[in-house]
Design goal:
With about 180 residues, the chain is of the alpha+beta class. Helix content is about 25%, strand content about 20%. It is built from 3 helices and 7 strands. A 5-stranded mixed β-sheet has the order 1-2-3-5-6. Strand 2 and strand 3 form a beta hairpin.
């Protein structure tokens, strides 16, 4: 598989995993059309009056920093009805994937403050860093931001499989009898 196909398949795996987690909890969820800029999945109440959306970021646990790729636009995406699902597929296909469900306001603040810290610190050999569109959501920002950061190791733990928080913006369908 070439790099583009691997990225596409990885993204689709994450989106379908999140869909499965939502549907199994009784939420009415559907994939958004390709190309929708701010979300991948739409969730609604049975009445269609309570909506929320999810942007899914998926990775394999193969990178050195354990983070997910983000962009500058994610600093501005702050809506109480938009959540991110950061999917860690693990080291290989036999691993149990983990999903961190994080409100968009929290993600925006984490990547904005970490990027500003990165820009304000000198790079290798003391050179001034140039701004770019690239951002990273990391499970631990202490190397970059120091021990006083609220984003130290473990900060993502409260969001691990935290599907209950979306009940504030939509509610699941009452659980049906198991279908045989």
């Amino acid at each position: 598989m070439n790099a583009i196909d691997a990225t596409t398949v990885t993204g689709a795996a994450g989106e379908h995993l999140v869909m499965s987690r939502l549907l199994s909890r009784g939420y009415i969820a559907a994939l958004a059309p390709q190309g929708v800029p701010n979300f991948d999945i739409v969730v609604t109440s049975v009445e269609g009056t309570q909506l929320c959306a999810f942007q899914v970021k998926t990775r394999w646990a193969k990178g050195s920093d354990g983070g997910w790729h983000m962009r500058q636009k994610h600093e501005d995406l702050q809506n109480p009805r938009i959540f991110y699902c950061f999917v860690d597929l693990g080291k290989d296909a036999s691993a149990v994937p983990v999903v961190h469900v994080i409100p968009s306001q929290i993600v925006a603040e984490a990547i904005r403050s970490s990027h500003q810290t990165w820009l304000s610190n000198p790079g290798a050999h003391g050179h001034v860093r140039k701004d770019s569109n690239v951002r990273r959501l990391l499970p631990d920002y202490t190397r970059l931001m120091g021990q006083d950061t609220p984003y130290k190791a473990g900060w993502l733990d409260r969001y691990r499989e935290n599907w209950d928080q979306i009940a504030t913006v939509t509610r699941p369908v009452p659980q049906l009898e198991e279908q045989g």
